[in-house]
Amino acid sequence: MVMTTNTNTAATTGTTTTGATTTGAVTPAGTGGDAGGRTGRIDFAKAAPKVFRALVGFDAAAREGLDPALVELIQIRASHLNHCAYCLHMHTNDARKAGESEDRLHMVAVWREARHFFTPKEQAALALTEAVTRVADAGVPDNVYAEAAAHFDDAELGHVLALILTINTWNRVALSTAKRAGTDERR
Question: For labelling, which of 17, 53, 68, 107 has a CA lying 20 to 30 Å from the CA of 60?
Answer without folding.
Answer: 107
